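Researcher: Good morning. I'm working through a list of sequences from a screen, and I'd like to move beyond sequence-only analysis. For each chain I'm collecting a predicted structure so we can compare shapes side by side. This is the next one on the list. No need for commentary yet; just the structure.
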Amino acid sequence: MQKLIVGNLKMNMESVSQRDTYCKELKEEFADLKTEHVIALCPPTVYLEHFTRIFSKMPVNIGAQDCFWELYGSYTGNTSPKTIKSLGAEMVIVGHSERRKYNHETNEDIAQKVAILLRTELMPIICVGYMESDDEMDSVRKQVEIIVQNFTTDDMENLVFAYEPVWAIGSGKTPTTDEIHTMIMFIRSIVSATHGKEVAENVAILYGGSVVAENVTEVCTNAYADGVLVGRASLSPHKFAQIARMLK
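Model: Good morning. Structure tokens for this chain:
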């Protein structure tokens, strides 16, 4: 079954030389890669145009790590989804825990971004999760409900959820296969309550948080996830390619 493998490069590649080295090595790693899965990379916004050009003839989709909730205007320092689309991107990560924490983004903010992305025909990858000290189910329920209750059934076909327990990001720790599967089924139950069982079964749900080649089978295939959102491991072209090779 086809999966979605998304690499979130975060605020790395602080120089053009690092960017160019990464792209060169990734092209080499992917040159002989045979996979049925969809591969995507989300570089820093300033490199979007370069990535879309470099990988235009390869099976690598490009996305952004965030966007603003308006198309244009007096919003210094923000990036319009329309600009992101014009640079060749196809998807945008929204609601990542690091945005929620450091930029104080709320569930309402995320819903606004999803709305403008769907309007711009970009696929939202909506991160949901919880702090270790929070009530897990309640946090995820609120993050998912604001999406499913404010968007149509047709909208649900064009978005992706990514379950990321905050404590697992970059920690080397992951939930068990059963814990991930339970959360995926919980998210589907929330979708089902508003849009029905068929829509809930078809909505894509990824797992993210310390994903590596050695555990991708457990956290994705065995947990019945529809793919993975990869952070630290995506910074290594070899490790990222190994995840694609290992994923069945």
